[in-house]
Amino acid sequence: MLYNNNKIALVDCNSFYVSCERLFNPSIEKKPVLVLSSKYVFVISRSSEANLLGIKMLEPYFKVKKIVKENDVKTFSTNFALYGDISRRVMKTLKQFSPQMEIYSIDEAFLDLSSVKNENLLEHGYNIRRTVLKWTGIPTSIGIATTKTLSKAANYIAKKEKSGVINLVNSKNIDKLLSGIKIKDVWGVGRQLTKFYIKNGINTAYELKNIHNGWIKKNTSVFGSRTAMELKGISCSSLE
């Protein structure tokens, strides 16, 4: 366990594949857009406008065809060469802001912000967001916290906020915010573990945080224990 004063930012590109398509097709800005897997089988990226229409991620395309037709939803097939190129530009931009960085996926990266003063973290997050948008055209959401799991939680909240940046370092609202995150949306909690937790009365990130660690170790796994500890602010996973 890493009992240090971590400051970790998770930068996540918003609806990344859709955002990439919009870069080269400005006419689809602020319109419902879907990116579909090859052969138009599943929805793998959707704009916020498509989300509001009730279209779910990984939903079979045949189930949403009627919604697509009735609402003039724009559809695209995946273009991984394009997405890979834009991803490299985003990650190269992010490297300007931290000496240590972990690329977590094609559209997500953890940044070590330990060198930034606590009172400057929020503005630093805004600056990262503005710069990525200016240099690459890709909108992002940023969650800042003392552990990876908490920064994921902060990012989940940031996606719903107009500012796009949430800082949980020394925040007095952590418990309130964690109470609003369903257990299924906690990083590292899969479908089966979600069912198990709900069966045992654990429905939110806040409730998981407050479960005794001995019970977690006995009933789940070392990974389940790590997740709960990280929600308490104890870092169990360093940047890789």
Characterise the protein shown here.
Helices cover 42% and strands 15% of the residues. Strand 5 and strand 6 form a beta hairpin. The strands form two sheets. It has a five-stranded mixed beta sheet. The chain has a three-stranded mixed beta sheet with strand order 3-2-4. The chain starts with 7 loop residues before the first strand and ends in a 9-residue tail after the last helix. The protein has helices at 16-23, 48-52, 61-70, 80-94, 121-136, 148-158, 174-179, 191-199, 205-209, 213-219, 222-231, and strands spanning 8-13, 33-36, 43-46, 74-77, 101-105, 108-112, 140-145, 165-167. The chain has eleven helices and eight strands. It is an alpha/beta fold and 240 residues long. The mean pLDDT is 94.
Any descriptors?
single chain; 240 residues; alpha/beta; 5-stranded mixed sheet; 3-stranded mixed sheet; 42% helix; globular
Q: Could you give a short account of the major beta sheet?
A: 5 strands, mixed
Number of helices: 11
The backbone outline, from C-alpha atoms, is globular
By oligomeric state, this entry counts as: single chain
Determine the mean pLDDT. Answer: 94
Helix proportion:
40-55%
Low-confidence stretches: none
Question: How far apart are the first and last residues' alpha carbons, in Å?
Answer: 15 Å
Beta-strand share of residues: 15-25%
User: From the alpha-carbon coordinates, what is the Rg to the nearest angstrom?
Assistant: 19 Å
Number of strands: 8
Physical arrangement of strands within the biggest beta sheet:
5-6-1-7-8
User: Secondary-structure element order, as H and E?
Assistant: EHEEHHEHEEHEHEHHHHH
Class per helix and strand makeup:
alpha/beta
